[in-house]
């Protein structure tokens, strides 16, 4: 059957259409996305403003039309941290349902981490052993660890690249003091969680997912996306540490000229790099592998699992 996943994230609203059935690998058929950056559209009270809600409703209408055009039989709509933590989340969800008919499922941070972990486990298989998975989104950082398809530990921290950029990094480029302050904040937040994971032992395989990790790996010399999903891509901490000061000195426009960096994500790449560097350092990770599957694929796989057991 043809499934559609409607992902209302902190950076983008993304419709992913796949051909799938239980026991088979989901095959991408169509992708439709719009950059809203909801994490950066919050007002002083933490609510999504009227303009942001209007844009969200309009984009969901576009996605519904695209889903209909592509023959989607079942739509799986969900929202992550930007909607989850908005001061007016209930009002936003009600308006989306009233005006589009779409009832967004708001995932908790732990659910995000678990579903992303499921996708990574299915991608790499059992031979990968104990997995440590890091996922940097626009609004949050998810960390999960485990031996099975369900992680032994999963946490979500408010360390998304978009959120941190809006709150901590004024100026283009930002000055050294805000960058140092953000670096301290990021590392203090991550350090609080390290003990929860270290009691499970050293992971056999460390994996990074999300656009931020993909772009950082590309900067460090990984294969470009046109070379396909199945090319192994790695990010070494040594390379990342060399890039952070360079990114700090660049304007957004200059970062957008770098290989693999999209114009819409260039402004938040420095914050994402600081989170990636802090996580890899504090967890003692010298190198991680990039996984092309993440949260959206996890949602699809969980749906297929339920179909297969029905």
- Amino-to-carboxy terminus distance: 15 Å
Number of strands: 11
* Helix-and-strand structural type: alpha/beta
Order of helices and strands: EEEHEHHEHEEEHHEHEHHHHEH
* Inertia-based shape: globular
Tell me the β content: 15-25%
Give a verbal description of the structure.
The protein is of the alpha/beta class. 46% of the residues lie in helices and 20% in strands. It contains twelve helices and eleven strands. It has helices at 50-69, 81-84, 89-100, 109-124, 161-168, 176-198, 211-219, 237-249, 252-256, 263-266, 269-282, 295-309, and strands at 2-8, 12-19, 27-35, 74-79, 105-106, 131-136, 141-146, 153-157, 205-209, 234-236, 287-290. Strands 8-7-6-9-11-10 form a six-stranded mixed β-sheet, with helices on both faces. A five-stranded mixed β-sheet has the order 3-2-1-4-5, sandwiched between helices. Strand 7 and strand 8 form a beta hairpin.
